[in-house]
Amino acid sequence: MTARLGALLLVVACAPKPPPAVQDGPHALTVLHTNDIHAHFEPEPAEWLDGRPAIGGFVRLEQEVRTLRAARGKDHTLTLDGGDQLTGTPITEIEVEGSFGGAMHALFDEVGYDAWVIGNHEFDKGLENISRYVQNHPTLPLSSNLLKPGSATPLLPQQEKSHIFDIAGMRVGVIGVTTDRLAGLMNKGDFALLTLLPEAQAVQAEVDLLDPQTDLIVVLSHIGVERDQTLASEVSGIDLIVGAHSHTRLTSALRIGDTYVVQAGSHNRSLGIVDLVEQDDRITEFRYELRDLLPNTATVAPDPEIQGLVATYKASVDRVYGERVSEATGLLGRSYNHESALGRWITDALRDRSGADIALYNGGGLRADLAEGPVTRLVLFQCFPFQNPVMQFRLTGQQVLGLVLQNIAADADEKRGFLSTSGLTWTWRRNVGAPELVTALVGGQPLHLTRMYTLVASSYVTEQWQKHLGGEAQPQDLEPLGYTDFDVAVEYARKHPVVDPGDIRGAQVE
Ligand SMILES: [Zn+2]
Predict the structure, then answer these.
(1) Residue 119 C-alpha to ligand 1 middle, in angstroms?
(2) What backbone phi and psi angles, to 5 degrees, belong to 352?
């Protein structure tokens, strides 16, 4: 808190801009950065390393940050996070310090981050929850383009569009930017309660404001590595973009014009380290390393405070999610653009619970394969982590046919997501290369184009009606059933063996 107050006083003291010195700098700065931690507070498998060892976690991260701060000098270091702190493990399904995700914020504070940018997954538990999440924490939330509706005021408490840090006499402007494609990524009701500016427009405005007052401009971005490069070419005056959202492991920095772009993968497994020298408002030396947080390479002892927090949170998760509910007799795999065993299982569970004619589940919602062996609530959570409300609605047979055709196209071209189904079956074939429908059945009876059918799907599917279901028409009589997809999975696993149902829903025939 005092550090930020100090920086604030400095800004006030520095305006208007002092006359340029004959020689400004050189200044040395180290930027340490993470992104898309997604609630992973313990070590996680690193799929790019031989044998997929578990690496990282907050205990290991803090050790590395502490070591680097000691080596470079704490007052020469800026520690930043690129957002999507929430959603990915059950710890953000448990209320800690007044919000879902509060455990994560406590861990970030303990490591001692200077700032972070608000990511799209921060809204997964609603706008009210993220407002509570950011309150009363010393780690500063940034975003220049997330505003209160119809105003220029930052959306969340304590949020700033940008902030000037005093790094040993060097004035570093850090600007936050959140993906401007939030509409498809968050709850529609909450989306109506905010104003979202285009990325480049918001960043350019802040650059223009900060440039005269600063030696270096850093954009802390949650827009993905592709759009970071677009931003670098569209906005003038950015020295460094610290990125996120695309979970990209950049092992060397990209350079677009005079702008460097870095990103540190995901899930708290690697730390990005930028060492730079600035002189006369320009970067004159630049080094970048993406350092994997291997367990056996720490040079200092673990911090007991962080160890204590991690142990407490792990115990909470075990208490709530450790219960064994069933046994899987084999692997239930998943697929994004084809039918899968896990897709068949969860849609059967949804139809069993709701009694609907047809159940749907999107390929992107299946987040892990279900392995053979004991099935705990945690195992089911890893497969279905979003805890979306289950919605019931009605469609005409014609609209159901549209779903079938979309699925056949997904199966055939592998370019789009597949909606797993229960209650709805079809066959298709290739006719001179082009996919064509052969039969379509609901509950074993031919699909009637004029009949109304009852369906269930998660709110994620129904909110993105056009993307997932196709067509202009809205689903009729849309209503929440009062439980989530995860609830359904737990209850179904308790009552039935967890096994691939095996009956193919959409079969290709000769
Ligand atoms: Zn994201």
Answers:
(1) 5
(2) -60, -45
Per-residue pLDDT reduced to its tens digit, 130-187: 999 999 788 999 999 999 999 999 999 999 999 999 998 999 999 999 999 988 778 7
Ligand 1 centre distance from Cα of residue 182 (Å): 9
Residues 445 and 472 in one domain: yes
* Cα 190 to Cα 127: distance, rounded to the nearest angstrom: 6
Which residue in the block uniquely carries the two structure tokens 């909110």?
Answer: 463
Over residues 45-78, the pLDDT tens digits come to 998 999 989 999 999 999 999 999 999 998 999 9
**Residues 240 and 208: beta-carbon distance below 8 Å:** no
Q: Which of 58, 49, 48, 129 is nearest to 87 (CA)?
A: 129
Residues 498 and 361 in one domain: yes
Which residue in 227, 105, 198, 213 sits closest to 156, CA to CA? 105
What per-residue confidence (pLDDT) applies to 483? 95
CA of 422 to the centre of ligand 1 (A): 31
Residue 78 carries which side chain, given as an amino acid letter? Answer: L
Instruction: State whether 472 and 328 are in the same domain.
Output: yes
244 lies in the same domain as 134: yes
Start-to-end CA span in the chain (Å): 69
Name the residue range of residue 344's domain: 324-508
Q: Are residues 177 and 123 in the same domain?
A: yes
> What's the 319 CA to ligand 1 centre distance in angstroms?
29
